[in-house]
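Why do we bother with holo predictions? Because pocket geometry can differ from the apo form. Keep that in mind while you read this record for zinc ion.
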Amino acid sequence: MKIKALALLAAMTATTAMAQTAPHERQARDIYEKVIAFRTAAGHGQMPKMTDYLVGVLKAGGVPQADIAILPLGETNAMVVRFPAAGKPSKKPILFSAHMDVVDARPEDWTRDPFRLIEENGYFFGRGTSDNKAGVTALVSTIVRLKAEGFKPKRDLVFAFIGDEETLMATTKLVAAHPWVKDAEFAINTDAGGGALDESGKPVIYLVQGAEKTYATFELTVPNPGGHSSRPRSDNAIYDLAAALARLQAYRFPVMANALTRDYLGAVGKSMPGEVGEGLRAFAANPQDQKASDYLATQPEFVGTTRTTCVATMLNAGHAENALPQKATATVNCRIFPDVKVADVQAELARVVANPAIQFKVLNDPQPSPVSEMRPDVMAAITRAIHVDYPGVPIVPYLESGGTDGKIYRIAGIPTFASSGLFTKTSDMFAHGLNERLAVPAFYKGLGHIYRVTKDLGGR
Ligand SMILES: [Zn+2]
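The structure, written out:
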């Protein structure tokens, strides 16, 4: 009995080990290790070195130099790789995208060296392990694997590697305008979309990003003549700003919904018990159900999918403890629903704070982007690919409250769907933060996902 159990265990271990050490998986792990080691945060000048390395891998894998384009921009660059159709293309190209840069990490703050791939306790640790060097690795690995198989795509496949997604997204704009890319029928972005595991590791839902909210930051300034603090006056920059912020706190932007957000909230609602599930299902059925939208407004996880949100994030006022303030400023960060204009949000904020003395300034360069209507062919390919490793898990589109450079493609007229293939537990999300990690099985399954989606869509 014991021997049999041991033999079974040995057989299982061997299967697991084999499953993770197929030749393409070993190569992908090696690529992952190499790209994590480049500190590709803005200002470190490492991007050309990383693309040199990737060009070497691609050429060794059978990609001719003529199908690789490097687009330099300042200290960084982007890379575009073409996998041409065999014969006359049946349709317009498909774009696949990942970004090579990372948010910087200070080695002294991390438990382990952030720029060394460390496999420990079932996780890969390192800056970029999840955001987005797993995606870079999956795209490079897929190209090399398809070349080795002699894959003959029916249309051009184009792979973009972006050099400044975390900062300016200027290389994404270069890529979107590149002759190989600009006529793409749609794009698959590896930098968002993904699956949720519950804390026991069971897959719950898989999300495909089809739209992003617009990120806009306003600075509200109350100017005042000021004066001596022994002689308070009826108007005061700090009190006036505080009153404005209290009005903003009490205000909610109107409820909004589209096909994508209703599908999303309805599908999540089905898998959630209690009041939250009930609220989600009621809202999906009827976004004008005020009880449901009022309830969801109290749920930080869902409020952003039901309306535009604006929230005060920073304050600055006064210049001396014994002087009346000459200025008070607040920073208000907004996540604006698709198809709502930034100027309209500013006008609404001005109306809400109800003080014409308050000056408004937009601090960033907001990039409103359209919703990408879900395509049945894309959803079907993603569903088939996900169900290989996670049978039966619901596949649902969603509106991103954060942001990626997918918006640049959408603005350029290329509908974009983000699907990383990566499943994570909420407790394992450390992108941009300390000790970023990705579960080892998630990495290998993510490779399989990108490979299957590329081959499926490229073969039609
Ligand atoms: Zn990212």
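The radius of gyration is 25 Å.
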